[in-house]
Specification:
The chain has a two-stranded parallel ribbon. The protein has a two-stranded antiparallel ribbon with strand order 2-3. It starts with 6 loop residues before the first strand and ends with a helix. Helix 2 crosses helix 3 and helix 4 packs antiparallel against helix 5. It folds into two domains: about 60 residues, no CATH class; about 55 residues, no CATH class. By secondary structure, it is mainly alpha-helical. The longest helix is centred in the last third of the chain and has 36 residues. It contains five helices and four strands; from the N terminus they run E-H-E-E-E-H-H-H-H.
Amino acid sequence: MEIGDIIVINKMDKPGAEDAGRQINHYFGGRDREGWHVPILLARADKGHGINELVQAIKAHSRFLMENKKGKEQEREKITAFMSLLLKEELWKRFVEAESGSVQFQRMIDEVRAGKEDPYTAVDRLMKSVLFFEERKAAKNQRKAKTERSTKSQSPK
């Protein structure tokens, strides 16, 4: 289980909130994580209670990360993970736009359903096909751009 850098228990007005805070503090509070003490805060967002403390904790954590080598490494890891997620989403979006309704994709789904192909091999084959298509498309665009440049350079001025 990954523990957050700041723990917030919302709905502090509900029965058991303070007990939950104490239990979490018992297990996770006071832990020093490379110099960062994980705060455990109680809040009631609908009334704004605990929000100032949360803002201060976020600011303190941000300062800690900027001043700490480990924090800079964590920031790099988070940016890498976020960019990887964006890349996956963009690739998925492009795939859906280009291939999801294709005969080849539907055939592969049928083959996997029938047990003729495992999903990993089917995805690998599909990716090779999509990448081949993208390479052909890029080559075609390059030829087109080269032809346009050639035509412009030969036109009378």
